[in-house]
Each structure stands twice: as C-alpha cells, then as structure tokens.
Specification:
Blueprint: H1 3-16, E1 23-26, H2 32-42, E2 48-51, E3 54-57, E4 62-64, E5 70-72, E6 79-82, E7 93-95, E8 101-108, E9 115-118, E10 123-131, E11 143-148, E12 151-156, E13 159-161, E14 166-171, E15 174-179, E16 182-184, E17 188-193, E18 196-201, E19 204-206, E20 210-215, E21 226-231, E22 234-236, E23 257-262, E24 265-270, E25 273-275, E26 280-285, E27 301-305, E28 309-310, H3 322-328, E29 336-338, E30 348-350, E31 356-358, E32 374-375
Parallel strand pairs: 1-2, 2-5, 3-6, 4-7, 5-8, 6-8, 7-9, 8-10, 9-11, 10-12, 10-13, 11-14, 12-15, 13-16, 14-17, 15-18, 16-19, 17-20, 18-21, 19-22, 20-23, 21-24, 22-25, 23-26, 24-27, 25-28, 26-29, 27-30, 29-31
Antiparallel strand pairs: 31-32
Length: 400
C-alpha cells in the first residue's frame, strides 16, 4: 500500500474507534468538592472515577448525567462523602444517566436524600453506605438509596441507617434486585413502591419502624405495582418509634411491623425469618385514604405467604383496639394479619401450616370496632406459579 494511503487508513481507523476509557482519580482534602464535581462533568462513557481514602467535605450536592460511568471508592468505611456542612436540602448525589455503577463508598448526613437516581436504567449500587450519624430524626433526609423511574436496578451489599422515610427505596421501576444489604433504624427498611418484577432477598432489616414494605399509591406517573418476591430475609427487632415527618405516607406505619403489603398485586413472602416485631410479623391491608385516580386499585391481591420462620411477635401491637385484639388472640396477634378487604379474586393465600387471621372488614378504612376476627381460609396453592423477577443478569458483572 502506498505510504499516503496507509497514513489515511490509520487516521480513519483512529477516528472510528472509541476513545479509551479513562480513570479519573480524586483525592480527599482541600478542594475535593470542586475536583469531584469536575470529574463527574468531564467523564466520558466508560470512564471510572476513583475516590481515594478519607473524608470528602461536601458543601453542596453532586450530579452525574453521563452514561456508562463507574464511581468507586476504597470501601464504604474508607471513602466517605461527608455532607454535614451541606448548604440547601438537596440529595447528596443525583444520577440521571444510564448504565452507571456506584460502589465502595459512603454518604453521611445529606440534608436530603443520600443517593437518588432518576430515570437511570441499568444502575448498580454495590457496597454503598448511607448514614445519618445522629440516629433517627425527622430532620434526616427521606431516602438513603433511592432509584426511581428505572428499568434494571441492582442494590447489593449496601447499608443504610437513619432515613426518615425508607433506607432503600425503589419506586416506579421494574426488573429490580435488592439483596445482601442491611437496613437499620430507618422508618421503613426497604420499600418497593409502584414497581414490578422485584426480588428482595438475603437482607437484614432490624430496628426500623417497619422492616419490608410493598406499596402501591395513587396519583403517581407509574402505576400498577406487583410481582414482588420477599425471600430469605432476616426481619427482626423492628421496634423504633416512627419518626417520619407528619404527612408522609410512612408516618402511618406502626412501630413493630415486620412486613407490610398494601394495595399490591402478586407478592410472594417465603423463607424469611421474622422475630420480635411487636405489632405483627406480616400485615396485608388495603389503602384507606380517599383518592381520585381512576387507574388505582386500593386492594391487596394475590398475596402468598409461604413457609417462613416466625418467632415472638404481635405482643404489643400499635393499632386501635389493641386490648380487644390481644384479648381475642390470647396475648399476641397471629403471625399473619389481613384486614380481609377484598374485591374480586384472591386477596391473601397461605401455605399449609401458616397461621393467619383476617379481621373480616368489608371496605377500606372501616373501623376495627367492626372487625370480626377469624382464621383465614386456606386456598389450594399447589401449582401456583410466580413469574421471573429481578435485575438483568448482566448487571452482576459490574460488582466484582
């Protein structure tokens, strides 16, 4: 090939090939806020932003809107983004791009949410810690780890404490896995809201007001949550008084709730260990507030409680009519409690050997004074199939 043609070919090949991914190292110390935000702005798809050991003093929130970026630290106890001096009430980090991986660092004391990702598909949170160091307080941010409006969410090996709403919250999303994480001393430990095809497994939920919550709420852009599996979780000692700000939906969660399912369609609860949840281990209820959203179904439907290990619980329920109910049940509520409110089809199904009672209420919001407690009729569950749920498999490759 003539020399000129060879040079042209090399130049054209270089122009066609993607630029090599770069590693941007950001150390703690003076100017860390500006250097980190600059790296987040200048990053290109495929780049890594590597945070060094130490505490990064943050005075403002951070943002990332570039696809395919990895932000990683030296470990959740080694690399700390400290927002104690944050001005304003925004989140610590806001991600609005796809295929982002966040791993091995901590966020402390953000004025708003810890890390929020909005409309960020195929996002991974791995070994992330979010902590409000002053303990439970209504002045803490609402959510620790907060993906919303996403397809493809993996949260693994993470830890959140002190959130005034939910430690790990996934909302209006689908294809979700939350696993191997610890949520402690939040109002809600893990909450799956208006979302579909979610797997919540191998987590520890302890010292929250409520451990695991599966909700559907009206008047949100994405409706129709369901197909949620809660499996092999340790849900114990959820006894923290509710510290959510007034008016928040989780302000109504009763201290001592293990698992709460409200107005959702298709929830499987199996192989969990539940102990010392003073209100109830498992509660299944309809939504009781007025609403004007024609798309909304307030009833819990097709909830299946399989084999679980139930320890002590239900001996100090924080609900109206407590004395009447304790007297009726001999000092402690059964492991599974259902309000009995049902529309068409199945409301709640129990595996053989699971003890559950219904209050036999006929409409959402009906007074407990009108309850007529009775055992839940068993429904034949052999052959009951549940669809495939969870995050896409290819997200796993990013957490090594």
């Amino acid at each position: 090939m003539p020399r000129m043609n060879l040079l042209c070919a090399i130049a054209l090949a270089a122009m066609a090939a993607p630029l090599a991914a770069e590693v941007h190292e950001v150390a703690s110390g003076d100017g860390a806020q500006e250097r980190l935000q600059e790296a987040l702005i200048l990053a290109q798809p495929g780049d890594e932003i590597v945070l060094g050991k130490g505490r990064f003093a943050m005075t403002d929130g951070l943002s990332l809107d570039v696809d395919g970026v990895t932000v990683r630290g030296a470990g959740m106890d080694e690399t700390v983004l400290d927002f104690t001096g944050q001005q304003g009430a925004g989140e610590g980090l806001l991600v609005t791009s796809d295929n982002v991986t966040l791993r091995d660092f901590a966020v402390e004391n953000p004025k708003g949410d810890g890390i929020k990702s909005k409309g960020a598909d195929n996002i991974v949170y791995s070994r992330i810690r979010v902590t409000w160091t002053n303990g439970p307080s209504p002045n803490n941010g609402a959510y620790g780890i907060y993906p919303v409006e996403s397809t493809g969410v993996l949260v693994t090996g993470s830890k959140v404490s002190g959130a005034s709403d939910a430690g790990i919250y996934v909302g209006q999303s689908r294809d979700i896995t939350v696993r191997n994480s610890i949520v402690e001393a939040n109002v809600a430990g893990i909450e799956i809201e208006n979302s579909r095809d979610a797997l919540v497994e191998n987590n520890i939920a302890t010292r929250n007001t409520g451990g695991l919550l599966v909700f559907d709420l009206p008047n949100l852009p994405v409706m129709g949550g369901g197909n949620v599996i809660l499996r092999r979780n340790l849900v114990i000692d959820n006894d923290t008084p509710n510290f959510a700000p007034p008016g928040n939906i989780v302000a109504s969660v009763r201290r001592g709730t293990g698992i709460l399912v409200m107005a959702n369609d298709g929830v499987l609860i199996e192989d969990n260990i539940l102990d010392n949840n003073p209100t109830a281990h498992v509660m299944v209820i309809a939504y009781t507030q007025p609403f004007d959203d024609e798309r909304y179904n307030p009833y819990a439907r097709n909830v299946m409680v399989g084999d679980n290990v139930f320890g002590r619980g239900g001996d100090d329920p924080q609900i109206d009519g407590k004395e009447m109910l304790l007297a009726a049940f001999g000092g402690a509520l059964p492991p599974v409690m259902w309000d009995g409110v049902v529309e068409d089809g199945n409301g709640l199904m129990l595996a053989h050997g699971v003890q559950g009672w219904t209050l036999n209420l006929s409409r959402p919001g009906q007074s407990l004074v009108e309850a007529q407690p009775g055992p839940i009729d068993l429904v034949e569950t052999e052959g009951w199939a549940f669809p495939e749920v969870g995050a896409p498999d290819d997200l796993e490759s990013r957490i090594q």
